[in-house]
Write a structure and sequence with these properties.
With 424 residues, the chain is of the alpha+beta class. It contains 15 helices and twelve strands. The protein folds into two domains: 220 residues, Metalloenzyme, LuxS/M16 peptidase-like (Cytochrome Bc1 Complex, Chain A, domain 1, 2-Layer Sandwich), CATH 3.30.830; 179 residues, 2-Layer Sandwich (Cytochrome Bc1 Complex, Chain A, domain 1), CATH 3.30.830.10. The longest helix is centred in the N-terminal third of the chain and has 19 residues. The radius of gyration is 22 Å and the shape is globular.
């Protein structure tokens, strides 16, 4: 095992924080952000696997497997796990995205050892056939639920079309067909390919004893067998233009918008994030003032999503059917016009402050900080404190946004409509 010395951080905000890191012999990386002033501690396993790592016949398996982890193993039943988490007073859950699956919880500091024990049990699920059969019904119900939420469903339908065969377009939930056909043996094989300690990060945030955390990680996870779990990163050739699906049951038109962006490894991602706020912050931006403030749309937004190897500006707007064409035209025009009329200094500063405030507010508790702390490290292999992130945002240069806009990404936009009578 290699154990890195704690790294002191500079800056007024981060002075009391410390970054810790250790790597176990089997490749499991353990990281921590120690805050002696915190009243709680949060911990989680970050598995670098998600919908982008699935083939068509396995669509939705990462999210399904997340559910199955809570069904227990040879040591604990599902009821046991739920009871034990509750006895700790833990706030706990899991989530799956395109690029990772996270299992996490938060407790009072003295209960961290037991929380780590329970989280480690989730990493070694039994995947019993009877549990698989029952949970499949739960997943199918979840798919049906999201199909009834058009502001979510429009992205599930449009993302595969925009990404045009790239795995970032894979649905996290999967489809009724893929989940119905999925077998327990296929899930087991996927687990055995992806849940390697070399593909995991154990992250801890808040008040903890670092030496105790590392010793416990070695005891509970040091014997997990390691194997390669590579991720394919093909180039993307996103779609442009417009498409749509008619759903006569809907009373409003829901629109998903996409345009090329930058990857998380690109230093311009901070400027791209600020630019997204200038153009599409849901409570005050160019799109808001053009569409929502004028009563043409009930919602209009745009943001930038930075993935490991690709990025995109992703937006949403909804309106009454009779105004849909006008709203879509105005939405697209606001973005295209920005390529020739970049942000003003005042717009830029307001957006920087909003984004910096949001980053800080989310990080005020260990549980709020944990997701970005673990995910950023897993994607980039470097530690970025909240103070550093805020500094990057506040120092993002308007000239960088101009450079991004000069590439005219919004000339290559993709519009997808879901609503009554709306077609490409």
């Amino acid at each position: 095992m290699t154990l890195d010395a704690p790294t002191p951080l500079a800056g007024e905000v981060a002075q009391r924080l410390r970054f810790d890191k250790a790597v176990l012999p089997n490749g499991l990386t353990v990281i921590g952000e120690h805050n002696p002033g915190a009243a709680s501690v949060a911990a989680g396993f970050f598995v670098q696997t998600g919908s982008r790592d699935e083939q068509a016949e396995l669509a939705g398996v990462s999210h399904f497997l997340e559910h199955m982890a809570f069904k227990g193993n040879e040591r604990y039943t599902a009821d046991d796990l739920n009871r034990l988490f509750d006895e700790l007073g833990a706030q706990y859950n899991a989530s799956t995205s395109e690029e990772r699956t996270i299992y996490y919880g938060a407790v009072l500091p003295e209960r961290l050892p037991r929380l780590l024990d329970l989280l480690s049990e989730l990493m070694r699920p039994a995947l019993r056939q009877e549990d698989f059969d029952v949970e499949k019904k739960v997943i199918l119900e979840e798919i049906a639920m999201y199909e009834d939420r058009p502001h979510f469903h429009v992205f599930d339908v449009s993302a595969p079309r925009f990404w045009a065969g790239h795995p970032l377009g894979n649905s996290v939930l999967g489809t009724r067909e893929s989940i119905s056909a999925l077998t327990r043996d296929q899930m087991l094989a996927y687990y055995q390919r992806r849940y390697s300690p070399t593909n995991l990060v154990l992250a801890v945030v808040g008040r903890y004893d670092w030496d105790a955390v590392v010793d416990q990680a070695e005891r509970i996870a040091g014997s997990w067998p390691a194997f390669d779990a590579p991720r394919e990163r093909p180039p993307a050739a996103p779609a442009t233009g417009r498409e749509g699906v008619v759903d006569p049951k809907l009373s409003r038109v829901h629109v998903a918008y996409y345009a090329p962006g930058v990857a998380i490894s690109d230093p311009r991602r901070f400027a791209a994030a600020v630019l997204g706020y200038v153009l599409g912050d849901a409570t005050g931006s160019r799109l808001y003032w053009e569409l929502v403030d004028k009563g043409l749309a009930d919602s209009a937004s745009l943001g930038h999503e930075a993935h490991e190897d690709q990025g995109a500006f992703v937006g949403y707007v909804s309106s009454a059917p009779e105004r849909a064409e006008e709203v879509i035209a105005r939405y697209v025009e606001v973005l295209r016009r920005a390529q020739d009329e970049p942000p003003t200094p005042d717009e830029w500063r307001r957006a920087q402050r909003k984004l910096a405030t949001g980053l800080t507010l989310r990080a005020e508790t260990p549980l709020g900080r944990l997701p970005s702390f673990g995910a950023t490290y897993q994607s980039l292999g470097v530690y970025q404190s909240v103070a550093e992130l805020v500094d990057r945002v506040m120092n993002a240069r308007i000239e960088t946004a101009v450079e991004l806009l000069q590439a005219r990404p919004f000339d290559s936009g993709y519009v997808f409509t879901l609503g009554p009578g709306q077609r490409a």
